[in-house]
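Q: Predict the bound structure with 6-phosphogluconic acid.
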Amino acid sequence: MTATPNRQLVICKDAATLAETAARRFSQLARDTVAEKGKFSVALSGGSTPKAMFSLLAAAPLNAEVPWASTFVFWSDERTVPPDHPDSNYRMAYESLISKVPLPESNVFRMRGEDDPAKAAEEYQREFTGFFGPGSPRFDLILLGMGDDGHTASLFPGTEALNIKDRQVVSNYVKKLNTYRLTMTRPAINAAAAVSFLVSGAGKAPTLKRVLQGELDPNQLPSQSIRPVNGTLTWIADREAVADLSLPEGTLNGGSDVIEISI
Ligand code: 6PG
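A: Predicted complex:
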């Protein structure tokens, strides 16, 4: 069995192929992990990109493949809004996936965006400790998106959460949005066994170029600081999003729907 390279770029023909690829990899990893250790822990990201992937996981054939009873769902970040608010990451996941699959309610660990942010972060830290034990949570998979400002989860450029090393989940004031967010910290994300970014669309191309091939500046490009200490990092992107990257000669020739390269 060939070793999985620890940093991979998976280039998908278009957004639909990206969603399908991400959903299939999720299903395969869940099945393999449950077969190996009896449970699968995943932190979902928010934003819009994962929605199509979640819908595919909620439909045949994938909905029957994922071992939902042994799958435990958390979030990488959440907005400070109630769970029924249009901006809620939980609501997006609930409507597109969780409400449609046999995932036991007790397997779903929602960040309480409706509560005082500091208290909600402390409560989620207790959830982490209860599920993973003390220290950093080692998720089997963390899904992330990348904003066009280089943020990921709710680790925004120049924000306080970027400097926190001794906690796994915090409230983070985001000046540009004039709001608090709940977010996993960099050490917590980097403790994962696998992290997958989903990046789609031409609008992300300049930032993806800076993040993957530009100068290292993790405080201005927080996505750059996601490097699992002992795990794999996979960037699943469509051709529009990789348009500015310098790729090995001929990478995109041959017309495959999905091209995997080590980076
Ligand atoms: C959030 C997300 C955030 C998101 C990126 C990309 O709460 O908004 O966690 O980090 O993943 O902003 O969002 P899109 O997928 O909508 O481009």
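A: The chain is about 30% helix and 20% strand.
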